[in-house]
User: Fold this.
Amino acid sequence: MKIDSLLAELKIPKEAYRLVTLLPLVHVAWADGKVQREERTLIMRIASERGLLDNGGRETLEHWLTVPPGPAKLKRDLEILNELGRGRGAIAEEFDADSLQLLLSWCQDVADAAGGLLGLVPARREPELIALKTIAAALDIRSAKGWKSLAS
Assistant:
């Protein structure tokens, strides 16, 4: 499938193609059925710092964080992300080993953003752990540094 078609399916303007890298963070944020304020703030901050909110990026990301995706949509989004990452060109360059490690780290930060209680309650609950494992598998980053920490 052509890159333009995949971006259109994700409702990402072509000029904001780099926004696709935030799909895993959004997936983690929705893991427990709702996006917490802290998760939203963190994702928006990362997007802003990376310059991903221009060219329609803000509207797309706001939509992702507002409209709950169903399981089929989440699965398809990750399939598209994987396909884009394995392709050629500018989008694929966003998924080199270092970028994948950073992406995994951000996903873990999102999973931790709204959880925990003074160290007495774990920040990552089962839905977040499942989302992290799903993302790592979808992006084929099992060998990425930090993968083992997902199982704990």
In short: Confidence is low (pLDDT under 50) at residues 117-121, 142-152. The chain has one domain: 3-151. The chain has nine helices and no strands.
